[in-house]
Amino acid sequence: MTEYTTGDIDLKVKITSEKNVTIDDVVREATAMYKIARSRNLKFGDLEAADALMAEFRKSNPEFSKSYPIVLRYMCQMQEFDSKALRKYLLKIKEHPWKNEKEYLDSQADYVVILYQATHSKWNRTQINNIRANVRATLQREHDMFTQYVKEFDREVTEQEQVLKKKSMDELTEFVRVASSTISEKAGTVRMETDLVSSSSIDVDSLAAELDNSPDYMSADSLLDD
């Protein structure tokens, strides 16, 4: 099994396959995905439909979706894709793989710029700089919001775990208390019964005399007489 790695940081994403994954493979897969996206005739601005389509692709093309989220996003939300632009983008990643969070976000902005240049015959450097700056700022805000969300989620989970742990300890403590009390009561009963037996000696002679005087009692001698 081989891997096509798009970066080299802790949060790196990769395409894993049973065969060698090449740039041609990635471009071919993206082209097929875009064909499906075009067939849906999504309306620009219909984010609900776009999100639903992205969810489908995350299931059907999980490695691609994780490795190239900005490509997937523009394909579904903006209905924009260009195979030549993607190829150029992938070659740039291959030559200059991103190594940290900042470079990763820079790389995402690079794709938008490359895509814009490929799909617009007329553009100038000012437009390109403005697009790059705006997209990069947007990606940073979204990333910061996501990071904050993850931190809040982790904090809430941690607090909930602490509450559950305390509840479990309280329940365990109460169980032990009740169990100990019950055991003590039962132990007391056993001691009382044991004390009663041990403190009362059994007089065999008196017991025999009582049996002899009982009208319902038949001695061994009377049985022999019969």
Overview in brief:
With 226 residues, this protein is mostly helical. The protein has helices spanning 23-39, 47-60, 62-67, 69-77, 83-95, 101-119, 125-199, 204-212, 220-225, and strands at residues 2-5, 14-17.
Describe the SSE topology.
Layout: E1 2-5, E2 14-17, H1 23-39, H2 47-60, H3 62-67, H4 69-77, H5 83-95, H6 101-119, H7 125-199, H8 204-212, H9 220-225
Antiparallel strand pairs: 1-2
Structural description of this entry:
By secondary structure, the protein is mainly alpha-helical. The chain has a domain at 2-123. It contains nine helices and two strands. Strands 1-2 form a two-stranded antiparallel sheet. α1 (23-39) runs antiparallel to α5 (83-95). It starts with a strand and ends with a helix.
Tell me what portion of residues adopts beta-strand conformation. under 5%
Query: What level of helicity do the residues show?
Result: over 70%
Judged by helices, strands and strand pairing, the structural class is: mainly alpha
Sketch the major β-sheet: 2 strands, antiparallel
Distance between the termini: 102 Å
| H/I helix tally | 9
Mean pLDDT: 76
CA radius of gyration is 41 Å
| Strand/helix succession | EEHHHHHHHHH
Shape: elongated
Question: What's the total number of strands?
Answer: 2
> Order of strands in the sheet with the most strands?
1-2
Low-confidence stretches: 1-18, 187-212, 214-226
